[in-house]
Structures are given as C-alpha cells and as structure tokens.
What does this fold into?
Amino acid sequence: MLECVPLSEGREAEPDIELEMASLSAASKRSGVNKHTEHMADTVLDLAPGAETKTLPTFEAYRGFMVDLMDQIKSKEITFLNEKFDGSPALLLGYDGEGKPFVAYKHGLGSSRGQRIVRSAADAKELFPEDSPMKGILSDCIRYLRQRLERFEEKNVMFQADLLFTPNNGAKQIPASGDVLIQPNAFGVEYRLKEGSKFHAHAKEARVGLVVHSALRREIDSNTGQVTEGDAISDPAVVENFVRAIRSKAVFAIDPWSRRIDLRQEGIRDFPEGKERRLKRELEEMGGALATLSPEFRTAWGRVSKYFQQYVNSHLKEGKSGGLLKAASGEEPFDFAKLVRGFSDWVTEKSTRVVPTKTGKKTEIPKVTEERLGHILKEHLPELHIAFKAYYDANRIQGELKPFMTPVYQSKLGGGRIEGVIFSDDTTIVKLVDRLDFSKNNFSGEAERRRAARARYRERLRETAERTQVKDTKPSPFTEWQPDAVFIVGKFQPPHSGHIAFIKKVQEEAGDKPVYVLASNKQPDLDAEKWNNMGVSTKARKGEVESDLRAARYDRVFSVDFRADCFREAFGDELAGVHFLSPREFWSYVREAKREGRPGKVRLAVGKKEIDEGRYSDQFARYGSHVEALTIEMQKDGVSGTEMKTALRNLALHGDEGSYQHLRYGFDYMPAGKRSEFIHRAYQAWVELHEEVQERITPIE
It folds into this structure.
C-alpha cells in the first residue's frame, strides 16, 4: 500500500543537503529502506544482477507502486502524502535530562562550542552574540513554545522542524491584498495564503510558524548528561500528536502530511477503466520484457547507467527541449535510434572533454565509458532497446496519470506548486516528481532569478556611481591645492575597525586641518583579469575563459554603496569628506602641484609598519617637495581587509560561525543591530556575485 515516509526533504542551505542525506542514509540502515530517494521511473533501470537482494528498488517495487497509485486515482482519493517543505533554519524541539523543554538550531547539539540548547530567552542571550539572528529567532521560539512543550507528556523524544516565521526573522508579510505571504528562506520559496483560505487566519495572527516533519528518540549521555539523538521514529502519528499539542493562537504548526487528497474536484476527470486496464497491462508486459535481459547485459549496463541518467537530466536545463522526458510526455513516439545516437554523442563528448581539478585535470566522465557503451551497442543492442523502451514507457505512464491527480502537486500550505511528494513501502522510498514540468521550469526559473538578482545588483552599482562621481570636473577635494590637508588613501575593502581607528588617530594628529579619505572606486568587476578565491568550480573548457568568462577579483566584492554606508555609520558628517576614486587621482594631484610650483605640502597618512616596509618610498622621493608622510603608530595583530574578505567567503560558502564572529568583530564600530544588517548585505552581495561567476564558467549542457 502506498504511504508516506516521515523523513525530511527540506533544506536550509547547501551545506545541510549532505547532512539530510546522511540522516536519510542512517534511517535506511535501520529500516532496510532504499538509501537514496529515487525518482519513481528511474527504478525501472535498476538492472544490476541480484538487485532483488539489495535495498535498491526493483521493477516489481515500481510496478507495485504504480498499480496501487492507479487504484487510488480510480477511487478518487490519494492517501497519505509527504510534501517537501522548505523552511529555515532547521530546528530541534525536545527535552533535556531533567525533562525541561528546549529549542535548538539543528546542529546545536553537536556544536564545537558546546551544546547550545535554549530553555529560555536568557539562554539565547548568553549563547549567541548580540547581533546573531539565531538569538532573536530562538528567543521567539522558546517564548511562545515553552508552555505547550511543558504540557506534552512524552519527554523521551525530540522533533525536527523547519521554521516558517518568527517576529525576528521577518519571513511573514501581510501585503495590501490581505494575503499572508511566507518567504522562509533565501532560495525564493514562497507560501501565499489567500484571505479566507485554510490556515490564513491562524497564520496571520500567529507569532511563530513551523513545519514539524520528523521525530526521533532522545538519549542522554551517561557521562556528560548531554542530549543526543537516537533512532528515528517512523510512526507519523507521533509527529501529528505533537503538532496538535504545540499549536496555539501564537504558534502556527503543521506537519508535512496529507492523510487524504480528494480527487473529486472540478476539472479533474474520472480515470477511464479502459486506460487503467491498458496501463496495467503495459506494466505487466514491461516486466516480462525486462525479465528476459541477460546477466551479461545487466552487468554491462550497470557500468554506464548513471551516465544515462545524467544525459537525461541534461535535457532539463535552460535552453534544452526536454529530450526523452519530452518525448515520453506524448509529444513524440519512442525513437530508439535517436536516443542511442544522442546518448552516444554525449558520452563521446564527456569522455574526451578535459576539465581542471584540484589535483590536475581529468575528463568529465571516465574515458572507458565510451568503450563500455560501445560494447553494449555491439553485443547487446536488442536488450538495450528493451531497457530504453521500458524507461520511456515508465515516464509516459507517469505523465498519463498526472491529469487525474493534479492536487498531489499542490502545497497544503496555500496550494502553490511543489516539487513533489515521497512514497514508501516497507523496503523502498521513491519520489513522485513531474520532472518535465517542475524540474525544467525550476531550472529556467532559477536562471531567471539569478538574472533578475544580477540586474538589481548592477542597477545599484550604476546608481551608486552616479551619486559618487562628479562629471566634467576634477573630483573634490582636488578642485584646488590645499597645503597641510591630510589624505588617507586605501582600498577599504571593506572599512573595518582597524581602518576606523586609524582614521580617528589621523583626525587627532591633524587638529584643525582637513582630512580626506580616498577610497578605491573599484566596483565588483566581472571582467577582471583573474579568478581569485571565489570558491567556484571551474569546469569551463580551455579557450572559453579568455574573454567574457573571466571572474571578478575577490577584493572587489564590497561595492562603493556598501562601503559608503560603512563610513556613514562610523563618522556621520564628522569627516571633511570620503571620496571614491582611483588612488592615481591623488598622485596626479601632487604631480600637477609640483609641476606648477605651488607652495606648501599635503600630508599622506601612513602606518608606521608601511613606512618601515618602504611603501610609497619611490613616491615620497619623487614628490617630496609637495607631499610628506604623517606616520601613525597602530596596534599590532589587528583585523585586516584580507581576513574580512576571507571570513565573508567562508561564511557564504560554508556557513562558518567563526567567520561570522570575525566579521562582527571587524564591524564593531557599528551599533549591534547595524552589524547584522551589514553582514547580511555583504553576504547577499557575495552570493549573487559567486552565482554569476559560477554560471559563467560552467559549460551549459
């Protein structure tokens, strides 16, 4: 019987995907289920010898799922679906060794800084920095959940949940339409609850919203007394009971399951008996044909099968037609010769294309793949025809069923489109996903989202350039010669606490003389000359990176707009001026004064370390008649721009908390609330730039 499996498929950020799969793998070892969540149609091509003895799905498992699904469609009722929700951050709700309730970030039990479980708002204040978003989020959660958690009788369990909204994460909005709009993460996921619809009133009034998706045993370490995670609890009723227990006016809580999907809705046709008989007969015939495949073919196919899946998926990318999946949707008949030709050409290209790796170079897929496929084409062509036809038919049958069960692909939270749902029996987990519709559109939508983000980013840069440049004249302060004025010249990528302390010391030394800060006007530049620490996977073919496929210099990630706002937070209007222009403008200013014989000198503020290292020695020797150094002694081992840039990179790529703290320290001249805002701005800008760089250097299939 088809039923859901209570395993989370939500995601918080890219690093969490591997952890989710690790959790799924651990659960599979306990229960004997398939260790990967396969697409339903893909199970048809699991042809390895002895597959029936493995935990991998077999054709009989697939056929059983499909027959059961057709029976449910015919009955006009789909039972027990597990929807894939996307909230952030991932949370743990549970009880400590004394039975006191807590909330924690998903990885809070295993933190290198010690367990960070929040039993009260005071705990959140103590465990997290003043400007950490987790402080406010977990304070909200425990404030509104604690009373309900205390009433829940079973204390030897923990629950995993995806956060939808709290007052401190701003994910819930009420636009003028009166809808409730929930945007719980940075990946563009959106749940819109129309006014008057199910969940609308509760979600509108609630302070905290979450999806509780799985339960596990709570264990207490006998040596440390710390809470640890035990085995997963497979009974969905445990989660459902918990959701009911914590739900209140202030807490909007749901589970990912739908016990019953009614197909008696307008626009959904009855499932014709003739179609049902035909499809079930085709499944029987498909199984009979696959049963004739020889062990030799099954072994040979197992060596190339994963590359066939890659080939099929490559046709879902932007600009592609959909390939076999498009044909199977009913638009084209099965064309074995075309499929073999396309796959062969793809294998030849991939097995000869050389790409760089950390340790050297290699082909995109093993060179031997072309030889292995050639062997199949020579020795097992009729059997390959059977396998490809079965795969085509599996996708076709799934497509034929969709019009009779469209509500399956609609979210229980607002009715929007979702990726799919998960089914399970005693041994196998499979996904029911319309890849031609959702996955292909998702690829396209992701590209459009990135393009839109880049367009917004470039527009901000353009507007900033217009605000910070003076056209047709020399930029201030260079409109006239100003003897005794003090200049501070630097990249300020970004302005950090060391810079601010330096500037304040210069102000003290300068007395009543004007002080000008000249910050580099370099914007993030996607046409710079070299890749530098962008954390991207450089898979572009040789020759394609020599012009428009060059990456941004990593030291130009912080825009003029961002840096100008940093200076405003630090100084307001106290400085004579902060100007964004090329450092060459300063030396041109001095050179022109020398050439014209103007009296007096300006001063360039330089750290003592820079003087000791001989920085600017050539310039001082050449223009000493018109510029002199104002030497400033600074503290040793202070924060540096390089460290700030590295911290931002590690935060964006790995979610590294130590890097977050380093950025917080670097921006400590700002009020605590502003620090979080600026770190988030820098993070978002870095991610946008990183995505564009990765997209431009990764070849389109």
